[in-house]
Design brief:
Two copies of one chain form a homodimer.
Chain A: E1 35-41, E2 47-53, H1 55-64, E3 68-71, E4 76-79, E5 88-95, E6 102-108, E7 124-127, E8 130-133, H2 141-145
Parallel strand pairs in A: 1-6
Antiparallel strand pairs in A: 1-2, 3-4, 5-6, 7-8
Chain lengths: 149, 149
């Protein structure tokens, strides 16, 4: 019987023939084991958030197809949407010329990615020297999170 | 005579009345004085690169209207395009809910932002477990940089 195919859209063997086991590797050294990952809505092109991944979060993201970060504040893996249901499904992954950041295009399963209730975490724009809210909320964060992220 | 208006599109006084001098401030503490800044093409919506800013680079970016990073490898301020002429003109700046990352929409004055010759630094996509170049170069980096960034 063939091995089960993982739920993610990418097949990412950790070992195998051809010496290709580390081709997915990224440069985590510059930032003490973390790299920034930009999340962009695949359809609208809107940048939704930026999170950090360690190697484990990165592998989880690829293997499961669900964007998974390393939470710096909670010091643990954090699958986006694990409490809210607002999961980010991976559609495409790109890395940059230095292998030290990621761009992940997603389909967002919720009305917003921001724990404050907005579609995007980037909901404040600079006007003069002030940060100004530039859009309305897309959901009630208290109803979803009840005080936690 | 009124003070000269800086070249940037934002007016960002460092001191003045109203106690608003620090409203532009961001949370640089989480990452040893740096925050990641995502650069997005204002017209196409393409994410072009990700760089890091310290407080000085951030202020320079706002005051001049030219995206300025802090180069971790060279340990100094780096106005994007200072050697190539491929300057990134600021069109809009947003910050995220935690004040610890930036999204900067720009007009890019060059054929590409990547020192390797591509429009975007994110020119490689994950296919299976391999990073694969997904587009051609838009300029000859040797002709522009001659071996340096």
């Amino acid at each position: 019987m063939p091995a089960a195919v993982p739920a993610g859209i990418f097949i990412a063997p950790r070992s195998g023939s051809g010496g290709c086991t580390d081709t997915m590797s990224l440069d985590f050294a510059k930032l003490d084991g973390l790299i920034p990952a930009v999340v962009q809505d695949e359809e609208s092109g809107r940048v939704l958030m930026l999170g950090f991944m360690n190697d484990e979060a990165w592998r989880k993201t690829v293997e499961t197809g669900n964007v998974t970060f390393f939470s710096r504040s909670r010091n643990k893996l954090w699958m986006k949407g694990e409490s809210s249901g607002h999961v980010l499904k991976v559609k495409e992954i790109a890395t940059d010329c230095d292998d030290d950041s990621l761009l992940i295009k997603v389909k967002s399963l919720g009305p917003g990615v921001c724990h404050a209730g907005y579609e995007s975490c980037f909901y404040r724009r600079l006007e003069g020297d002030q940060w100004v809210e530039s859009e309305g909320k897309t959901y009630d964060p208290n109803a979803v999170y009840g005080g936690s992220k």
